[in-house]
Structures are given as C-alpha cells and as structure tokens.
Amino acid sequence: MDYEIVLLRERPELVPEAAEWFGHCFGVPESAYLESMEEMLEGRGTVPQWYVAVDGGAIIAGMGVIENDFHERKDLRPNVCAVYTDEPYRGRGIARALIGTVCQDMAGMGIDTLYLVTDHTGLYERYGWEFYCMVQGDDGPERMYAHRMEET
Given 10, 29, 135, 148, which is the most exposed site by the fewest CB atoms within 10 A? Predict the structure, then answer.
C-alpha cells in the first residue's frame, strides 16, 4: 500500500472532499467540517488543522486538531479530534503515521501538549499518549489522554 499523508492547509483543493469524508464518517454535517477547514486556510491561528491519508486519490483516514472536542475542560487544549481510518485500512500503521505527523506538525508550531478524548482503552498508549483524566463530554464521561512532545 502506498498512501500519502496530506496537511490540508498545503492541499486546499482536497478540502471539499475531506469535509464530505469526515461528515460521512461521523454523521456530522459536512458544513461543520468545511467551516473549520476554511478557518484553517484563512490562517487565523495555529488551530484548527486537518490531516488526511490518501491512497490512490481516495481519502482513507484522517484527523483534526481543534481547540475543544466538546467537553467541559476548556483548559485542556488543543484537542486531536475526528480520528478515523476506513475499515479496510485498519491495522496497517496509518493511524500511527497520522498521529506522528500531527504531533510533529503541532510541535513545529510551538504546541507542546495535545489532548484527545476517546472511549478506546489501550490504543493510544501504544502511540505514546497517557491517560490524563475523565472529562464530561456531550454524551457523558469520557477518557482524556495527553501527549507531550518536543519539537523535532
């Protein structure tokens, strides 16, 4: 498999397709993703940022970085969000590569800690994340992970 990790700010022509893909994956209106991606392209700040993995021209995985992923701890930011890999591509190291790219990119922008809300246990620890605390999300209590990185 020969996939490419794309920083959407560097390939704005993929934004409409990416917004549609994320919307389909999470059942969230495409317009919400499009609005966030347009904010990224306007360059108003470090966050939001969006990333996808592309194989043969098709988006197969992606994630974003936003200020807050719908939880009450506004001080724990920015948050990795919308982490998804299409089922046929899981278990091939794509999510690990995406997370590595996101962490490197954010470190290069001066961000030293990222946070992630998930219901997964054990998965993100393999990628260097540590359980931080429980947070109250829109759907109840959720696990919050943190990842400190050094600029490379």
Answer: 10
- For residue range 75-119, list pLDDT tens digits in order: 999 999 999 999 999 999 999 999 999 999 999 999 999 999 998
Amino acid in the structure at residue 34: L
Cα(128)–Cα(148) distance, integer angstroms:
9
Q: What is the pLDDT of residue 1?
A: 66
Q: Give the ranges where 27-125 is alpha helix by DSSP (H).
A: 30-42, 94-108
Say if pTM beats, i.e. exceeds, 0.90.
yes
Q: What is the dihedral of CA 93, 50, 33, 27, to 10 degrees?
A: 10
Alpha-carbon 110 to chain mean position: 17
Give the pLDDT confidence of 28-74 residue by residue, as tens digits: 999 999 999 999 999 988 999 999 999 999 999 999 999 999 999 99
Which residue is it, tokens 């260097």?
128
Sheet holding 130-137, edge to edge: 3-7, 49-55, 58-66, 79-85, 113-118, 140-148, 130-137
